[in-house]
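A protein record in our archive is deliberately plain, so that people and models can read it alike. The record that follows is passed on verbatim for readers who wish to inspect the format.
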Amino acid sequence: MKYPLLIAAASWIFFAIAWSRWRVRAVGGESLPDSLRILLSVAILVTMGSAAFIMRGVQGPAAFGFGMVFSLGLYMAGFLALFVMWHQTIFALISRPITDAFDGGGATEEQRPFYFKALACKGRGEHLAAIEEIEDQLSRFPKDKEGWLLKAEIESTGLLQPIVALATLDEFLAVARPEDRPEALFRQAEIELDRMKRPEAARRRLEQITHEFQGTEAARLALQKIARLPSGGWAEGNPLGDRDALVVTQHEEKIGLSTDLGARHIPRGESPENRRDQLLLQLEQHPDDAVAREELARLLANELGEPDEAHRHLEDLVAAPGQPDRDVVRWLNIMADIHLRSPAGIAPANLALQRILQAFPGSPAADAAERRITLLRVESTHKPETPKVRIRRTTTNVGLATDRRFSARRANIPGLLPDPEVPDAPPSSADPSTH
């Protein structure tokens, strides 16, 4: 008999110790936590079980009757206590399927930071107050990318402290999620280049992206930015970098009186051959420069008349991994344009457009390619006409023309002398000079 009583007493002592520790640390008005409610429920159930075990050993009608009354009261009190503690949870479990059918479920709104106060302070020029608001939000959401980038932007452009902004981004990179790291590194490269005039440091930031995120859109964009980085001369104050300065030709002041209207003094544009050599040199140094390769393909197809070579460069662009869909669609359309310039170019142009249908089925680009396929024959035979400018021959010395619209004779105004440019005519009966 004593073992059930000891077990029940131990459960109540354990609950009392846990409740005392919670009560010391709890804030006023705080409800009992679920862990303590579970311990209290266990103590009540153990007590009820101990009473049932004790009743099994009771002998005699009087003792049995007294034990039954005591056990019944204990059970009623225990179940009432359990009901008071857990009735809300039990009713919620029972009613939840019904209420979810009407209100769509009990999903709570996701907590997220808000920076409208910081943006308002930034708009008023109160940059320190804006940073305080951002830091208050970051204390609750330490991995929020928007807050860290906004703080770095204010430090770099508002407070003119790019070094502090770089340190802020380094702090963010230490806790950032993998998908948020590329944007932080891009922002660091931007600060290094635009604010601190350090293109080599910007290059290192971009190269870190290419090594850390190989084969992704971020790595492809970083390679494009590396290809467009200025040279060392740009950092020393020369906006052209290491290139020679532009030569400004002195024109004649009165070019309108020259026979060629000053055309001989206009500097000639760069020849297509020289531009091709420059683009080839750029691609030799940066093979992933899609902008330069596309420009070279257009130059070869239009000015230099080498459609096969242009097609090869476009194929290299399409086959490169990680290219954006919009760029691939544009390059395939350029291929179709090049094919249509040849006499039998409808079939290869059709194949180029069919590749858009296969690569992007159901997309707006595929719909546009399908419409263009139906018009390929019309497009191949259509040649835009060069607008003709008609020049009317005008009479020189217009100020001495004799056919004046408003002459004194035609106006027939009394008191005016005859127009000397109009030949003499018989006087009219309405002319007052005849009377």
